[in-house]
Specification:
By secondary structure, the chain is α/β, with parallel strands linked by helices. It has eleven helices and 14 strands.
Length: 436
Protein backbone atom coordinates (compact mmCIF):
# COMPACT_ATOMS: atom_id res chain seq x y z
CA UNK A 1 0.00 0.00 0.00
CA UNK A 2 2.78 2.40 0.91
CA UNK A 3 4.50 1.74 -2.40
CA UNK A 4 1.29 2.59 -4.27
CA UNK A 5 1.01 5.94 -2.42
CA UNK A 6 4.66 6.72 -3.20
CA UNK A 7 4.03 5.88 -6.84
CA UNK A 8 1.04 8.26 -7.02
CA UNK A 9 3.05 11.05 -5.39
CA UNK A 10 5.87 10.47 -7.85
CA UNK A 11 3.46 10.65 -10.78
CA UNK A 12 1.98 13.92 -9.49
CA UNK A 13 5.44 15.43 -9.07
CA UNK A 14 6.43 14.24 -12.54
CA UNK A 15 3.27 15.77 -14.07
CA UNK A 16 3.90 19.06 -12.29
CA UNK A 17 7.49 19.17 -13.50
CA UNK A 18 6.37 18.43 -17.04
CA UNK A 19 3.81 21.20 -16.93
CA UNK A 20 6.41 23.58 -15.52
CA UNK A 21 8.64 22.83 -18.47
CA UNK A 22 5.97 22.95 -21.20
CA UNK A 23 3.48 25.38 -19.74
CA UNK A 24 5.28 27.98 -17.69
CA UNK A 25 4.34 29.18 -14.23
CA UNK A 26 2.10 31.90 -15.62
CA UNK A 27 -0.37 29.35 -16.98
CA UNK A 28 0.23 26.37 -14.67
CA UNK A 29 -2.87 25.71 -12.56
CA UNK A 30 -4.25 23.07 -10.20
CA UNK A 31 -7.78 21.81 -9.81
CA UNK A 32 -9.54 21.17 -6.51
CA UNK A 33 -7.84 17.83 -5.91
CA UNK A 34 -4.37 19.11 -6.76
CA UNK A 35 -4.08 17.81 -10.32
CA UNK A 36 -1.94 20.08 -12.48
CA UNK A 37 -3.19 21.41 -15.81
CA UNK A 38 -2.14 24.10 -18.24
CA UNK A 39 -4.48 26.95 -19.06
CA UNK A 40 -3.24 27.28 -22.62
CA UNK A 41 -5.52 28.70 -25.27
CA UNK A 42 -5.32 25.61 -27.43
CA UNK A 43 -7.26 23.76 -24.74
CA UNK A 44 -9.33 26.38 -22.96
CA UNK A 45 -9.41 29.30 -25.39
CA UNK A 46 -8.62 32.13 -23.00
CA UNK A 47 -5.60 34.25 -22.12
CA UNK A 48 -6.50 34.78 -18.48
CA UNK A 49 -7.10 32.12 -15.88
CA UNK A 50 -7.46 34.80 -13.23
CA UNK A 51 -7.53 38.56 -13.59
CA UNK A 52 -3.97 39.20 -12.52
CA UNK A 53 -0.59 40.37 -13.79
CA UNK A 54 -0.28 37.28 -15.98
CA UNK A 55 -3.21 38.32 -18.15
CA UNK A 56 -1.53 38.77 -21.53
CA UNK A 57 -2.31 38.09 -25.16
CA UNK A 58 -0.48 34.76 -25.15
CA UNK A 59 -1.48 33.65 -28.63
CA UNK A 60 -0.99 37.06 -30.25
CA UNK A 61 -4.50 37.28 -31.70
CA UNK A 62 -4.93 40.89 -30.62
CA UNK A 63 -7.62 40.03 -28.09
CA UNK A 64 -7.11 39.38 -24.39
CA UNK A 65 -9.85 36.97 -23.35
CA UNK A 66 -10.80 36.33 -19.76
CA UNK A 67 -13.09 33.84 -18.06
CA UNK A 68 -14.54 36.70 -16.04
CA UNK A 69 -17.65 38.14 -17.66
CA UNK A 70 -17.15 35.89 -20.67
CA UNK A 71 -20.75 34.75 -21.09
CA UNK A 72 -20.40 31.46 -19.23
CA UNK A 73 -22.78 30.66 -16.38
CA UNK A 74 -20.32 30.78 -13.53
CA UNK A 75 -22.60 29.96 -10.62
CA UNK A 76 -20.91 26.79 -9.40
CA UNK A 77 -20.42 25.19 -12.79
CA UNK A 78 -17.49 27.24 -14.05
CA UNK A 79 -15.20 29.20 -11.81
CA UNK A 80 -11.62 30.17 -11.21
CA UNK A 81 -10.85 26.66 -9.98
CA UNK A 82 -13.54 24.73 -11.89
CA UNK A 83 -15.68 22.91 -9.32
CA UNK A 84 -14.10 24.53 -6.25
CA UNK A 85 -17.16 25.78 -4.42
CA UNK A 86 -15.29 28.57 -2.63
CA UNK A 87 -14.44 30.15 -6.00
CA UNK A 88 -17.84 29.84 -7.60
CA UNK A 89 -19.35 33.09 -8.81
CA UNK A 90 -21.83 34.52 -11.28
CA UNK A 91 -21.21 38.02 -12.58
CA UNK A 92 -24.63 38.16 -14.18
CA UNK A 93 -23.33 36.63 -17.42
CA UNK A 94 -26.50 34.66 -18.01
CA UNK A 95 -29.06 37.16 -16.75
CA UNK A 96 -29.66 35.26 -13.52
CA UNK A 97 -28.86 36.16 -9.94
CA UNK A 98 -25.64 38.07 -9.35
CA UNK A 99 -23.46 36.17 -6.88
CA UNK A 100 -20.05 37.47 -5.90
CA UNK A 101 -19.30 36.46 -2.33
CA UNK A 102 -15.53 36.66 -2.82
CA UNK A 103 -15.36 39.84 -4.91
CA UNK A 104 -14.18 38.28 -8.17
CA UNK A 105 -16.59 40.37 -10.26
CA UNK A 106 -15.60 43.75 -8.84
CA UNK A 107 -13.40 44.67 -11.80
CA UNK A 108 -16.09 44.13 -14.43
CA UNK A 109 -17.11 47.39 -16.07
CA UNK A 110 -20.86 47.88 -16.17
CA UNK A 111 -22.78 48.15 -19.42
CA UNK A 112 -25.15 51.14 -19.38
CA UNK A 113 -28.03 52.20 -21.57
CA UNK A 114 -28.75 55.71 -22.82
CA UNK A 115 -31.71 56.86 -24.87
CA UNK A 116 -31.04 59.24 -27.72
CA UNK A 117 -33.58 60.22 -30.37
CA UNK A 118 -35.84 57.35 -29.34
CA UNK A 119 -33.12 54.75 -29.74
CA UNK A 120 -31.58 52.83 -26.82
CA UNK A 121 -27.81 53.07 -27.07
CA UNK A 122 -25.26 51.18 -24.97
CA UNK A 123 -21.88 52.03 -23.53
CA UNK A 124 -19.35 50.86 -20.98
CA UNK A 125 -18.17 53.45 -18.50
CA UNK A 126 -15.13 53.19 -16.25
CA UNK A 127 -14.44 55.64 -13.44
CA UNK A 128 -11.44 55.01 -11.19
CA UNK A 129 -12.09 55.03 -7.47
CA UNK A 130 -11.78 58.40 -5.74
CA UNK A 131 -11.53 60.24 -9.06
CA UNK A 132 -11.23 63.99 -8.57
CA UNK A 133 -14.01 66.30 -9.70
CA UNK A 134 -13.43 67.90 -13.09
CA UNK A 135 -11.28 64.96 -14.21
CA UNK A 136 -10.79 64.39 -17.97
CA UNK A 137 -13.07 62.09 -19.97
CA UNK A 138 -11.87 59.91 -22.84
CA UNK A 139 -14.16 58.32 -25.43
CA UNK A 140 -12.78 55.14 -27.05
CA UNK A 141 -14.58 54.09 -30.24
CA UNK A 142 -14.47 50.57 -31.68
CA UNK A 143 -13.91 49.67 -35.32
CA UNK A 144 -16.37 48.44 -37.95
CA UNK A 145 -17.83 45.00 -37.08
CA UNK A 146 -16.19 45.20 -33.63
CA UNK A 147 -17.75 46.28 -30.34
CA UNK A 148 -17.17 48.33 -27.21
CA UNK A 149 -16.10 45.34 -25.10
CA UNK A 150 -13.37 44.33 -27.55
CA UNK A 151 -11.68 47.70 -27.67
CA UNK A 152 -12.00 48.06 -23.91
CA UNK A 153 -10.09 44.80 -23.51
CA UNK A 154 -7.23 45.32 -25.94
CA UNK A 155 -6.72 49.06 -25.44
CA UNK A 156 -6.27 48.62 -21.67
CA UNK A 157 -7.33 52.23 -21.08
CA UNK A 158 -8.91 51.35 -17.73
CA UNK A 159 -5.49 50.63 -16.26
CA UNK A 160 -4.09 53.83 -17.77
CA UNK A 161 -7.07 55.71 -16.32
CA UNK A 162 -6.29 54.31 -12.86
CA UNK A 163 -2.71 55.52 -13.17
CA UNK A 164 -3.51 58.96 -14.57
CA UNK A 165 -6.86 59.95 -13.12
CA UNK A 166 -9.41 60.15 -15.90
CA UNK A 167 -12.70 58.44 -16.83
CA UNK A 168 -13.25 56.29 -19.92
CA UNK A 169 -16.37 55.73 -22.00
CA UNK A 170 -16.63 52.92 -24.57
CA UNK A 171 -19.79 53.59 -26.61
CA UNK A 172 -21.40 50.93 -28.76
CA UNK A 173 -22.20 51.63 -32.40
CA UNK A 174 -25.46 50.57 -34.00
CA UNK A 175 -25.98 47.65 -36.40
CA UNK A 176 -26.10 48.27 -40.14
CA UNK A 177 -27.91 46.31 -42.87
CA UNK A 178 -25.28 43.57 -42.58
CA UNK A 179 -25.81 43.32 -38.81
CA UNK A 180 -22.32 44.80 -38.27
CA UNK A 181 -21.62 47.45 -35.65
CA UNK A 182 -20.61 50.78 -37.16
CA UNK A 183 -20.21 54.51 -36.72
CA UNK A 184 -22.01 56.55 -39.35
CA UNK A 185 -19.20 58.41 -41.10
CA UNK A 186 -20.59 58.17 -44.63
CA UNK A 187 -19.28 54.92 -46.06
CA UNK A 188 -20.52 54.27 -49.59
CA UNK A 189 -22.64 51.30 -48.48
CA UNK A 190 -24.16 53.30 -45.60
CA UNK A 191 -25.84 55.98 -47.70
CA UNK A 192 -29.27 54.91 -46.44
CA UNK A 193 -28.19 54.97 -42.78
CA UNK A 194 -29.60 57.93 -40.86
CA UNK A 195 -28.30 57.36 -37.33
CA UNK A 196 -26.87 60.58 -35.84
CA UNK A 197 -23.72 59.37 -34.09
CA UNK A 198 -22.29 62.88 -33.70
CA UNK A 199 -25.38 63.96 -31.82
CA UNK A 200 -25.40 60.78 -29.74
CA UNK A 201 -21.76 61.09 -28.68
CA UNK A 202 -22.12 64.78 -27.85
CA UNK A 203 -25.25 64.10 -25.81
CA UNK A 204 -23.63 61.15 -24.02
CA UNK A 205 -20.53 63.23 -23.23
CA UNK A 206 -22.66 66.00 -21.74
CA UNK A 207 -24.59 63.43 -19.70
CA UNK A 208 -21.41 61.87 -18.27
CA UNK A 209 -19.85 65.26 -17.57
CA UNK A 210 -22.90 66.26 -15.52
CA UNK A 211 -23.57 62.90 -13.89
CA UNK A 212 -20.00 62.32 -12.69
CA UNK A 213 -18.68 65.92 -12.41
CA UNK A 214 -16.21 65.41 -15.26
CA UNK A 215 -14.40 68.13 -17.18
CA UNK A 216 -16.29 69.92 -19.93
CA UNK A 217 -13.05 71.34 -21.34
CA UNK A 218 -11.08 68.09 -21.19
CA UNK A 219 -13.13 65.55 -23.13
CA UNK A 220 -11.27 63.68 -25.88
CA UNK A 221 -11.85 60.99 -28.48
CA UNK A 222 -9.79 58.12 -29.84
CA UNK A 223 -10.76 55.05 -31.80
CA UNK A 224 -9.68 52.22 -34.06
CA UNK A 225 -10.36 52.28 -37.82
CA UNK A 226 -14.06 53.23 -38.16
CA UNK A 227 -13.78 54.61 -34.62
CA UNK A 228 -10.82 56.69 -35.79
CA UNK A 229 -12.88 57.94 -38.73
CA UNK A 230 -15.58 58.92 -36.27
CA UNK A 231 -13.03 60.82 -34.19
CA UNK A 232 -12.19 62.94 -37.23
CA UNK A 233 -15.88 63.62 -37.76
CA UNK A 234 -16.14 64.74 -34.12
CA UNK A 235 -13.17 67.06 -34.60
CA UNK A 236 -15.03 68.63 -37.54
CA UNK A 237 -18.54 68.82 -36.11
CA UNK A 238 -18.24 68.48 -32.30
CA UNK A 239 -15.02 70.32 -31.42
CA UNK A 240 -16.99 72.27 -28.80
CA UNK A 241 -17.34 68.96 -26.93
CA UNK A 242 -14.28 66.95 -27.97
CA UNK A 243 -11.23 69.20 -27.66
CA UNK A 244 -8.58 66.81 -29.07
CA UNK A 245 -8.53 63.51 -30.97
CA UNK A 246 -6.15 60.60 -31.45
CA UNK A 247 -7.32 58.19 -34.20
CA UNK A 248 -5.61 54.85 -34.85
CA UNK A 249 -5.77 53.59 -38.45
CA UNK A 250 -8.41 56.24 -39.11
CA UNK A 251 -9.15 58.41 -42.11
CA UNK A 252 -11.26 61.33 -43.32
CA UNK A 253 -13.89 60.47 -45.86
CA UNK A 254 -13.95 62.95 -48.75
CA UNK A 255 -17.43 64.06 -47.69
CA UNK A 256 -16.18 64.82 -44.17
CA UNK A 257 -13.18 66.71 -45.53
CA UNK A 258 -15.35 68.87 -47.79
CA UNK A 259 -17.83 69.76 -45.05
CA UNK A 260 -15.43 70.07 -42.09
CA UNK A 261 -15.87 73.28 -40.09
CA UNK A 262 -12.11 73.77 -39.95
CA UNK A 263 -11.68 74.58 -36.25
CA UNK A 264 -8.16 74.10 -34.81
CA UNK A 265 -8.04 70.81 -32.89
CA UNK A 266 -4.93 68.91 -31.70
CA UNK A 267 -4.55 65.62 -33.61
CA UNK A 268 -2.47 62.48 -33.17
CA UNK A 269 -2.84 59.84 -35.89
CA UNK A 270 -1.19 56.40 -35.58
CA UNK A 271 -1.13 54.62 -38.93
CA UNK A 272 0.71 51.72 -40.57
CA UNK A 273 2.16 52.24 -44.04
CA UNK A 274 1.09 48.70 -45.03
CA UNK A 275 -2.46 49.04 -43.73
CA UNK A 276 -4.58 47.05 -46.18
CA UNK A 277 -7.94 48.22 -44.79
CA UNK A 278 -7.52 51.95 -44.30
CA UNK A 279 -4.93 52.53 -46.97
CA UNK A 280 -1.98 54.81 -46.19
CA UNK A 281 -2.34 56.39 -49.64
CA UNK A 282 -6.11 56.73 -49.35
CA UNK A 283 -8.65 55.65 -51.92
CA UNK A 284 -10.04 58.69 -53.70
CA UNK A 285 -11.26 56.48 -56.56
CA UNK A 286 -13.25 54.25 -54.17
CA UNK A 287 -11.65 51.08 -55.48
CA UNK A 288 -12.32 49.21 -52.23
CA UNK A 289 -15.97 50.19 -51.82
CA UNK A 290 -15.73 52.17 -48.58
CA UNK A 291 -16.15 55.46 -50.39
CA UNK A 292 -13.61 58.11 -51.36
CA UNK A 293 -11.17 58.98 -48.59
CA UNK A 294 -7.96 60.97 -48.27
CA UNK A 295 -4.41 59.73 -47.86
CA UNK A 296 -2.89 59.81 -44.39
CA UNK A 297 -0.43 62.56 -45.34
CA UNK A 298 -3.16 64.70 -46.89
CA UNK A 299 -5.20 64.40 -43.70
CA UNK A 300 -2.27 65.49 -41.58
CA UNK A 301 -1.56 68.39 -43.96
CA UNK A 302 -5.17 69.49 -43.57
CA UNK A 303 -4.95 69.65 -39.78
CA UNK A 304 -1.51 71.26 -39.92
CA UNK A 305 -3.02 74.04 -42.04
CA UNK A 306 -6.10 74.40 -39.85
CA UNK A 307 -3.92 74.66 -36.74
CA UNK A 308 -1.51 77.01 -38.54
CA UNK A 309 1.52 75.02 -37.40
CA UNK A 310 4.79 76.78 -38.18
CA UNK A 311 7.44 74.22 -37.26
CA UNK A 312 7.95 70.49 -37.71
CA UNK A 313 10.40 67.73 -36.94
CA UNK A 314 10.74 64.00 -37.62
CA UNK A 315 11.66 61.84 -34.66
CA UNK A 316 12.63 58.18 -35.02
CA UNK A 317 11.27 56.36 -31.98
CA UNK A 318 13.36 53.54 -30.47
CA UNK A 319 12.99 50.27 -32.38
CA UNK A 320 12.78 48.08 -29.30
CA UNK A 321 11.22 45.02 -30.94
CA UNK A 322 13.04 43.78 -34.04
CA UNK A 323 10.65 40.85 -34.43
CA UNK A 324 7.62 42.98 -35.35
CA UNK A 325 9.30 44.00 -38.65
CA UNK A 326 8.29 47.64 -38.21
CA UNK A 327 9.41 50.88 -36.63
CA UNK A 328 7.80 54.21 -35.79
CA UNK A 329 8.55 57.76 -36.91
CA UNK A 330 6.84 60.68 -35.18
CA UNK A 331 6.16 63.51 -37.63
CA UNK A 332 5.59 66.32 -35.14
CA UNK A 333 4.10 69.66 -36.19
CA UNK A 334 4.20 72.37 -33.52
CA UNK A 335 4.14 76.13 -32.88
CA UNK A 336 0.44 76.09 -33.77
CA UNK A 337 -2.67 78.01 -32.74
CA UNK A 338 -3.51 77.75 -29.01
CA UNK A 339 -0.30 75.76 -28.46
CA UNK A 340 -1.90 72.88 -30.37
CA UNK A 341 0.23 70.26 -32.08
CA UNK A 342 -0.43 67.76 -34.87
CA UNK A 343 1.42 64.44 -34.74
CA UNK A 344 1.60 61.51 -37.11
CA UNK A 345 3.04 58.26 -35.83
CA UNK A 346 4.06 56.60 -39.09
CA UNK A 347 4.39 52.88 -38.39
CA UNK A 348 6.72 51.88 -41.21
CA UNK A 349 5.64 48.44 -42.51
CA UNK A 350 2.84 48.47 -39.95
CA UNK A 351 -0.56 47.04 -40.80
CA UNK A 352 -4.14 47.58 -39.61
CA UNK A 353 -3.14 47.31 -35.97
CA UNK A 354 -3.36 48.88 -32.53
CA UNK A 355 0.38 49.01 -31.64
CA UNK A 356 1.19 47.50 -28.28
CA UNK A 357 -1.81 45.17 -28.43
CA UNK A 358 -0.94 43.62 -31.78
CA UNK A 359 1.27 44.48 -34.73
CA UNK A 360 4.02 46.94 -33.86
CA UNK A 361 5.39 46.47 -30.34
CA UNK A 362 7.82 49.38 -30.21
CA UNK A 363 5.13 51.59 -28.73
CA UNK A 364 2.00 51.16 -26.68
CA UNK A 365 -0.61 53.08 -28.66
CA UNK A 366 -2.86 53.63 -25.65
CA UNK A 367 -0.06 55.10 -23.55
CA UNK A 368 1.12 57.28 -26.43
CA UNK A 369 -2.44 58.50 -26.97
CA UNK A 370 -2.92 59.52 -23.37
CA UNK A 371 0.52 61.16 -23.17
CA UNK A 372 -0.49 63.28 -26.17
CA UNK A 373 -4.00 64.09 -24.98
CA UNK A 374 -3.09 64.91 -21.40
CA UNK A 375 -0.92 67.80 -22.61
CA UNK A 376 -4.19 69.47 -23.65
CA UNK A 377 -5.95 69.13 -20.32
CA UNK A 378 -6.95 72.62 -19.27
CA UNK A 379 -6.97 73.51 -15.58
CA UNK A 380 -10.15 75.36 -14.68
CA UNK A 381 -9.22 78.82 -13.39
CA UNK A 382 -5.74 78.80 -14.92
CA UNK A 383 -6.43 81.98 -16.86
CA UNK A 384 -2.77 82.83 -17.50
CA UNK A 385 -1.95 79.17 -18.30
CA UNK A 386 0.98 78.80 -15.93
CA UNK A 387 -0.44 75.47 -14.56
CA UNK A 388 -1.25 77.09 -11.19
CA UNK A 389 -4.52 78.71 -10.07
CA UNK A 390 -3.79 81.69 -7.82
CA UNK A 391 -4.10 85.47 -7.41
CA UNK A 392 -2.26 86.02 -10.69
CA UNK A 393 -5.17 84.41 -12.52
CA UNK A 394 -7.59 86.85 -10.87
CA UNK A 395 -5.45 89.75 -12.10
CA UNK A 396 -5.35 88.26 -15.61
CA UNK A 397 -9.12 87.75 -15.58
CA UNK A 398 -9.79 91.35 -14.54
CA UNK A 399 -7.48 92.56 -17.34
CA UNK A 400 -9.45 90.46 -19.83
CA UNK A 401 -12.74 91.94 -18.68
CA UNK A 402 -11.42 95.53 -18.80
CA UNK A 403 -10.05 94.98 -22.30
CA UNK A 404 -13.38 93.62 -23.52
CA UNK A 405 -12.00 90.15 -24.24
CA UNK A 406 -14.31 87.30 -25.14
CA UNK A 407 -14.42 83.67 -24.06
CA UNK A 408 -12.88 82.76 -27.42
CA UNK A 409 -9.66 84.60 -26.53
CA UNK A 410 -8.67 82.75 -23.37
CA UNK A 411 -9.81 80.58 -20.49
CA UNK A 412 -11.61 83.18 -18.41
CA UNK A 413 -15.15 81.80 -18.64
CA UNK A 414 -14.96 80.16 -15.23
CA UNK A 415 -18.68 79.48 -14.85
CA UNK A 416 -18.96 78.30 -18.46
CA UNK A 417 -21.87 80.55 -19.43
CA UNK A 418 -20.24 81.82 -22.63
CA UNK A 419 -19.56 85.29 -21.19
CA UNK A 420 -16.54 86.66 -19.33
CA UNK A 421 -17.65 89.13 -16.66
CA UNK A 422 -17.49 89.92 -12.95
CA UNK A 423 -19.40 86.73 -12.12
CA UNK A 424 -16.39 84.77 -13.38
CA UNK A 425 -14.15 86.73 -11.01
CA UNK A 426 -16.38 85.73 -8.10
CA UNK A 427 -16.35 82.10 -9.28
CA UNK A 428 -12.55 82.16 -9.58
CA UNK A 429 -12.13 83.63 -6.10
CA UNK A 430 -14.37 80.91 -4.65
CA UNK A 431 -12.43 78.27 -6.58
CA UNK A 432 -9.12 79.46 -5.14
CA UNK A 433 -10.50 79.72 -1.58
CA UNK A 434 -11.97 76.22 -1.76
CA UNK A 435 -8.60 74.81 -2.77
CA UNK A 436 -6.86 76.16 0.33
Amino acid sequence: MLSVVKFKITVLIFISLCFNQDCGNNMLMYDCVGTAFCNDEATYGYDCYVNNQFCEDFNGDGITDSWVGDGWCDDGQWGYDFQCEQYSYDCGDCGDLYSDDYGYCSHIVELYQYEYQGRIREYYFYKPENLDDNAPLLFVLHGYTSNANNIMNYSNFNTIADENGFAVCYPQGTSDQYNSNFWNVGYAFHQNQTVDDVGFLKSLANHLQTEYSLSIQNTFSTGMSNGGDMSYLLACEAYDTFSAIAPVAGTMMESIYESCDGAPVPVLEIHGTNDDVTLWDGDMENNDGWGSYLSTLDIIDYWVDINNCQESEDINLPNTDFYDNSYVVNHRHYDCINNNEVWLYEVVNGEHDWPGAYGNMDINASEEIWNFLKSYTLLVGDVNQDTVVNILDIISLIEIILSGGSSDDNFGDINDDGIINIIDVVALVNLILNNF
